[in-house]
Design brief:
Among the domains are: 100 residues, no CATH class; 60 residues, no CATH class. Helices cover 56% and strands 0% of the residues. The chain contains 12 helices and no strands.
Length: 263
């Protein structure tokens, strides 16, 4: 917990309030005296010129010092700043440009389908798989005058739950205007560096399991590659890693096939 500043303490000090009232009263009196002197001089000139004397000036009031003064109509009071509507704002971070049509409708069946495939931000969930699945669902619907990107921006929040939903609400208001920005923000947050490092390590240290067939091992290796698009290995390096990781008898078979193809 941080300490309150000296400035905050001074603002709430009763002696400061008392001094402020005295200064306002003194200023009002000075203004009244100056107005009286000006009026007296004007009366003297009117008498010399044979004119009627001007009316006396109004008694200046100090609105800030009058505790009974009423606020002007429409002017906010201190209490108004604490009302709910005073601080409410549109906090939605997703604001794509409006479509050409405003009479479009997203079918409830599509929303329900998106909600059935939610991403909650759990370690076992894969953000890239979620994006691919979501985009595939969105490809099944369209609306004239409404872009596919706009529909994705409007639908994606329905696909998020738990931690992922809280992440979305934490984004600054109006900070995302396109689907590409939305997708990048989601992937950058949930596809962490630790996850990327872990999958790269699985690729570089790949070994075929004792009870794993050749094709099962190959599918698992391809899955690692798919799960880490930024693995950094070229195609030749990847197949060398796979070759080194498979059982010896399969290496012999691959060597034989390679020899037959090159002969």
């Amino acid at each position: 917990m941080t300490r309150r500043s000296n400035k905050d303490n001074l603002v709430e000090h009763p002696e400061i309030d008392k001094l402020e009232k005295q200064l306002r009263k003194q200023k009002a009196q000075e203004m009244a005296d100056e107005a009286a002197r000006a009026h007296a001089a004007e009366v003297a000139r009117a008498q010399e010129e044979g004119r009627d004397p001007p009316p006396p000036p109004p008694n200046p009031q100090d609105p800030a010092g009058d505790v009974n003064a009423q606020p002007q109509a429409g002017a906010p009071t201190i209490g108004d700043y604490d009302s709910a509507d005073a601080f409410f704002m549109d906090r939605n971070p997703i604001h794509p440009p409006p479509p050409a049509r405003n009479d479009y409708e997203i079918k409830p069946q599509i929303i329900a389908l998106v909600r059935q495939n939610q991403f909650n931000g759990l370690p076992a969930e894969h953000p890239l798989d979620h994006i691919e699945n979501f985009e595939e669902i969105c490809s099944t619907t369209r609306s004239n005058g409404v872009s596919a990107d706009y529909l994705k921006c409007k639908l994606f929040s329905f696909s998020l739950g738990d931690k992922a939903s809280r992440w979305l609400k934490s984004l600054p208001a109006h900070s995302i205007t396109t689907w590409d920005e939305y997708k990048a923000a989601f992937i950058n947050h949930f596809y962490t560096k630790q996850r990327s490092i872990s999958v790269r390590n699985k690729i570089s240290t790949f070994r075929q399991g004792n009870n794993e067939s050749f094709y099962e091992a190959l599918d698992r290796f391809k899955e690692y590659i798919r799960d880490c698009p930024n693995h950094g290995f070229n195609e030749g390096n990847l197949w060398n890693i796979f070759y080194r990781g498979i059982d010896h008898k399969y290496k012999l078979s691959l060597d034989t096939l390679q020899a037959m193809e090159t002969s």
